[in-house]
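Sharing in case it's useful to others searching the archive later.

Someone asked me privately for the predicted structure of glucan 1,3-beta-glucosidase, so I'm posting the question and my answer publicly. Question first, with the sequence:
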Amino acid sequence: MDSTPRSRAPFLTEHAAMSPDPQHRFYGHGGIDSASRDSFQSADNSYAYSVQYASSVDRLNPSPGPDNWSGGRERSTLQMDEKDAVYAQKSSKRKPLIIGCIGFLVVAIAGAAIAAYFVIKNKNDDDSGGKSSVKTLAVTGGDGSKVTLEDGSTFTYNNPYGGHWYHDPNNPWNNNAKAQSWTPALNETFNYGVDRVRGVPALFEKYAHITPRVVDEWGLHAAMRDDPDGGGIDQIEEHYKTFITEQDFAEIAAAGLNYIRLPIPWWAIETRDDEPFLANVCWKYVLKAIGWARKYGLRINLDLHAVPGSQNSWNHSGRLNKGVNMLNGPMGLANAQRTLDYIRIIAEFIHQPQYRDVVTMFGVLNEPREPFIGAEQLEAFYAEAYRIVREVTGSDAGAWVSIHEGFRSWGDWDDFLPNAHNLAVDYHPYIAFGDQVDQDWDARANQPCEYWAQNVQDRLTKFGLMTAGEHSNAINDCGLYLNGVEEGVRYDGTYVPEKVKSAGSCDKYTDWPNFTDARKEGLKNFAMASMDALHNYFFWTWKIGNSTASGKVECPAWSYKLGLDNGWMPTDPREADGYCGSKFEFNQTIQPGSGSVNYAQYPWPPTSIRNAGSPSTMPRYTPTGAVPTLPGGTLTVSGAKATKTVDVGNGWANSE
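And my answer, the predicted structure tokens:
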């Protein structure tokens, strides 16, 4: 990772006076000048328990369960390991623990075998003369064409929906690829509101029983570093290499989907001090994902999933149960400043002309816990993040800036940041974590229409673009480690954090090889109801690995690919359009705002930080140090090289 100085970056100081100009370009890439301060110095009341995640997401449904979302006493020594079970297990001796970056692939929602060709020299050719061997490879093709992968192997591209792929090493920024006939190519305009977003995240059992117990990526990376004989920290990169591959991207397009939600952690950019994460390596695979998406005509929603100090104290933020320390507690301001730096660095990269037609949406913060952070504080942060992105792109240009709703109610963001250009709000509706009742999918197939359709239509009408950044087919919490490693399941009464009444056995929801045709039909109807009700959606997740104990997927309701392969997901997602009938009728282009925003309505920094007081008395960053630069890259083919030099960008859309 290049750390060429772009601007003087801040150094953390104790109780520094506030800068008279809070709009300076970078807030911080310096060190910490007090040994007593670290990113996870927490406020006492900001820990995460599994019941809190369940009740947080369930608030989007009618008659939500008990309100455990705003804090409270610890229910169990087994803390929240949210969504662990939906991640695949690579090794035969591993349990799932969260891994960031490309392992978190979420998918959103086409011809005859046609191919054009290019000729490239073998990389060992002598350019000065003599014999020159050449390799002839296709640069584009439709259904039935042959695709050459990075390692030189090939596969047959199957896309029944009129889609075509495109990749020319001599012109790697060509955006002619088209996911399906009905989805605009990357070099065409995507009409949000009419063109639906249809989109679709492994891990290591090996360290589950060591002391201290590994429950998050912080602990996982640390345990790997302490185990060089077992492969060390390089095991993380092996996961990046093997779990999601180029062929998955081709299959996603062939499934009729057109968007990828790609969560990334802050250590894709850098780490500091004692942070144990494998720094920067993740970014290499983000670049591969961008290249694959371009090749198959898919757009990317790049989602900042984990930030310094943690925005929610859940495992997917990088560190479990060390508190909400972003915009909360003594390090709340400093961690927010650092996060805003990363937002600017990412915005500078994705707005370069080489990448901006592929990365068309930027989720600036995944699932912040507004009950701990505060409404005023979160709104101020979002407004500042939006301002920073638009300072890079221009006030009326650039990727959609997506803000998560922070576990507030439907409609709470309808009046936020009037006139903002390309601002989207992201909800994560799940039914799985509500009341656990003995009802099959057929009995609950219409619930997504009843629960969500009108609320989604209202958001599209009153706010603008709304996406469901996460949803699944689950109607209960059955599934291996879905609530956390060894935390049990509410549905069958084995839940460890609190005593619950059993609703029955989970077998009928997890034993998918024995699903009857009737059960598959009910499950498919539920899936289509969700797709239509949510309009623009990202299914969590594309695929799940097999359990090492049973040899099969144990969370079938969370795998889009498993549903496709076994008949309970529609092979063409357009089949779901209109499923909710009159409950959902929105079909018009969402007009972007003018970009004329009154930032004074959301002053940054906010007047106070929860559990810390005035920002003027808190540790904060001041301008010193170098700012990391994100490198660019293109796809390659083993044994060959392009005949032209390609400009991959310098990481900065703006030279100043």
